[in-house]
Amino acid sequence: MNRALIVVDVQESFRARPEWSRMADPDIARSVDRLVALARDRGDLVVRVLHTEPGTGNVFDPERGHVRPLAELAPALPGEPVLTKTSHNCFTTTPLQRLLTEAGVTALTVCGIRTEQCVETTARIGSDLGYAITFVTDATTTDGVGGFSAAQVVERTEAVLRDRFARIATVAELEAERAAERTAGADGLAVSAG
């Protein structure tokens, strides 16, 4: 295993905010679960990271009870870390880098809530730390920011990350790549058995 899937902030805190109704994809759990299933199939590490703001009294304060994965997400399996962070990126305030280093991970797939914020920031920092990053845009969601629509925010994020910090991919593209890997593996077994 040299890959990990990082699921960023796919948590009930966001659903508890009025902005949830403006999210581009309120059914994000479906896309994320497809990525989780794909990662598990490949034997990749799956890491969930939740945003917290202790002592604030807002929806990210653990005392409010919303800092937990979205209810419809498939639960983490034993051995799949669930970390909490207090910064925008998943590295600065968590043991994520140590965990990845100990697991021999060199490539990250990132997805989650707030495409342009915590997910993008995690991708940028991860790239700077030397990880090969795959940013799965259709397994992220956001709402409009600063007069820009959610679609414009996503387009901007893809533009600034593409070929500089990350490879941009879709869930379907990654699933097709996995199917091709399986086919190639089966062909190799058939040749060696012949």
What attributes characterize this protein structure?
194 residues, single chain, 6-stranded parallel β-sheet, Rossmann fold, alpha/beta, 39% helix, 6 helices, 6 strands
How would you describe the overall organization of this protein?
39% of the residues lie in helices and 19% in strands. The protein is built from 6 helices and 6 strands, in the order βααββαβαβαβα. The longest helix has 23 residues, at 171-193. With 194 residues, the chain is α/β, with parallel strands linked by helices. Helix 4 packs parallel to helix 5 (150-161). The mean pLDDT is 95. It is globular, with a radius of gyration of 17 Å. The chain has a single domain (1-190), classed as 3-Layer(aba) Sandwich (Rossmann fold), CATH 3.40.50.850. The protein has a 6-stranded parallel β-sheet, sandwiched between helices. Helix 4 links the parallel strand 4 and strand 5. One of its GO terms (molecular function) is hydrolase activity. Residues 4-170 form the Isochorismatase-like domain. This is Isochorismatase family protein.
